[in-house]
């Protein structure tokens, strides 16, 4: 019996058949603070970053590696203006669909609804894990946790964004890596 | 110079509002226009704004700290500038028409640094914080409260002069940025 397609596979399939392709140069924004997120993106090549902007710095929240599905999720769900920016760290291509298209996919069948619920459950557990990251005091421990999830972190992402994501200065990151 | 606290802060609030409005207009420009440099030695719009961001990184936390630690004596209502503070403030003040060229300290020179789409947004957030701090300053003794300068921690100016210097400095570079755009259009 054929394995049922996971929700992500169905989603990527929908994006491939009905989604809009968009190209971004390094540094281009996918969404800025204040805009309402109307799309969900599949990063088909390149790398994106979700971040918060304060008066003094950019705080990196999350990365969207090649193959990932990403967007400004709270804005997408609530319809409120996005608190976050998403930019392309490198030249990036995405396929994107709208919230309406996503909802149509979810409501297509009971199986899709079940799978979507499961996907959201996984996302929630990932958020909780990230919450623990932030609360972890030791920089070494914080780095270790993230490397367990993303072993290719240093090959994929420029150092300054890694330091911000790990909530440490680039100097501390250097020190922790070398110890 | 001699004035009242209210008059001083209100003047600075007005200038700040104008600087904010000017930079808000820059948001409609294209990336190419924002990065346009007349020549290698001149700054682009983004470089002007990033320069202001770098100053804000030092001065906004410093001003906020000093206001929080403010002298408890209530402000007398009259403001008199300090000698050095007045000199710095006047150095920055835009005289109608001309903007004199001035060298920037090396760590505040944005040329060559990575300027992004968020440079303008960050400046606007700093302006919002500055406006909040200026309003708090209405209740602060602007003579007896002192703030450090970015060049060295050993020199402190009257808070009133720090605010004048900071706001006039922003006005100056925003005007410089506006000139870059006006120049390009010719």
Give the strand line-up of the largest sheet of chain A: 1-8-3-6
CATH class of chain B: Mainly Alpha
Largest two-chain interface: A-B, 12 and 13 residues
The largest pleated sheet of chain A is described as: 4 strands, antiparallel
Beginning-to-end CA distance, first to last residue of chain A: 51 Å
The CATH homologous superfamily of the domain at 7-109 in chain A is called Jelly Rolls
CATH topology of the domain at 7-109 in chain A: Jelly Rolls
Indicate the mean pLDDT of chain A: 93
Strand tally of chain B: 4
Q: In the CATH classification, which architecture of the domain at 7-109 in chain A applies?
A: Sandwich
How large is the radius of gyration of chain A?
17 Å
Unreliable runs of chain A, pLDDT <50, ≥5 residues? Answer: none
Rounded to the nearest angstrom, the distance between the terminal CA atoms of chain B is 39 Å
Please specify the SSE layout and strand pairing:
The complex is a heterodimer of chains A (179) and B (186).
Chain A: H1 7-18, E1 20-24, E2 29-31, E3 39-45, E4 48-53, E5 58-64, E6 69-70, H2 73-78, E7 85-88, E8 92-98, H3 99-106, H4 110-135, H5 139-149, H6 153-156, H7 159-165, H8 170-178
Antiparallel strand pairs in A: 1-8, 2-7, 3-6, 3-8, 4-5, 4-7
Chain B: E1 2-4, H1 5-26, H2 31-35, H3 45-68, E2 78-80, H4 83-92, H5 118-137, E3 146-148, E4 156-158, H6 159-185
Antiparallel strand pairs in B: 1-2, 3-4
Model description:
In chain A, the strands form two sheets. Chain A has a four-stranded antiparallel beta sheet. Chain A has a four-stranded antiparallel beta sheet with strand order 2-7-4-5. The longest helix of chain A has 26 residues, at 110-135. Chain A has a domain at 7-109: Jelly Rolls, CATH 2.60.120. Chain A has 179 residues and is of the alpha+beta class. In chain A, a hairpin with a 4-residue loop joins strand 4 (48-53) and strand 5. The relative contact order of chain A is 0.16. Chain A contains eight helices and eight strands. Chain A has helices spanning 7-18, 73-78, 99-106, 110-135, 139-149, 153-156, 159-165, 170-178; strands at residues 20-24, 29-31, 39-45, 48-53, 58-64, 69-70, 85-88, 92-98. With 186 residues, chain B is mainly alpha-helical. Chain B has one domain (2-185): Four Helix Bundle (Hemerythrin (Met), subunit A). In chain B, 58% of the residues lie in helices and 6% in strands. Chain B has six helices and four strands, in the order βαααβααββα. A two-stranded antiparallel ribbon of chain B has the order 1-2. Chain B has a two-stranded antiparallel ribbon with strand order 3-4. In chain B, a hairpin with a 7-residue loop joins strand 3 (146-148) and strand 4 (156-158).
């Amino acid at each position: 019996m054929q394995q049922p397609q996971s929700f992500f596979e169905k989603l990527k399939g929908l994006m491939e058949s009905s989604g809009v392709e968009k190209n971004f140069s390094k540094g281009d924004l996918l969404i800025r603070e204040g805009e309402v997120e109307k799309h969900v993106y599949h990063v088909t090549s390149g790398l994106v970053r979700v971040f918060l902007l304060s008066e003094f710095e950019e705080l990196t929240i999350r990365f969207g590696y090649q193959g990932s599905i990403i967007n400004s999720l709270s804005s997408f769900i609530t319809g409120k203006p996005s608190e976050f920016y998403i930019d392309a760290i490198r030249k990036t291509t995405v396929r994107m669909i709208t919230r309406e298209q996503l909802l149509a996919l979810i409501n297509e069948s009971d199986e899709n609804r079940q799978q979507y619920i499961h996907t959201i459950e996984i996302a929630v557990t990932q958020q909780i894990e990230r919450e623990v990251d932030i609360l972890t005091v030791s920089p070494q421990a914080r780095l270790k946790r993230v490397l367990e999830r993303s072993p290719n972190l240093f090959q994929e992402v420029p150092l300054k964004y890694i330091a911000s994501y790990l909530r440490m200065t680039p100097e501390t990151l250097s020190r922790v890596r070398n110890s | 110079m001699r004035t009242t606290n209210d008059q001083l802060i209100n003047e600075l609030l007005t200038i700040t509002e104008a600087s904010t409005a000017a930079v808000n207009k820059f948001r409609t420009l294209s990336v190419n226009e924002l990065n346009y440099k007349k020549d290698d030695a001149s700054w682009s719009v983004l470089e002007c704004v990033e320069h202001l961001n770098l100053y804000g990184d030092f001065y906004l936390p410093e001003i906020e700290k000093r206001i929080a630690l403010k002298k408890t004596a209530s402000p007398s209502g009259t403001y008199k500038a300090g000698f050095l503070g007045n000199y710095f403030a006047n150095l920055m003040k835009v005289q109608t028409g001309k903007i004199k060229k001035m060298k920037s300290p090396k760590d505040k020179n944005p040329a060559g640094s990575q300027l992004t789409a968020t440079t303008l947004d960050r400046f606007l957030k700093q302006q919002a914080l500055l406006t909040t701090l200026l309003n708090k300053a209405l209740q602060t003794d602007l003579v007896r409260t002192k703030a450090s300068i970015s060049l060295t921690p050993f020199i402190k100016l009257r808070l009133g002069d720090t605010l004048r210097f900071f706001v006039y400095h922003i006005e100056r570079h925003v005007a410089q940025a506006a000139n870059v755009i006006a120049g390009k259009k010719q």
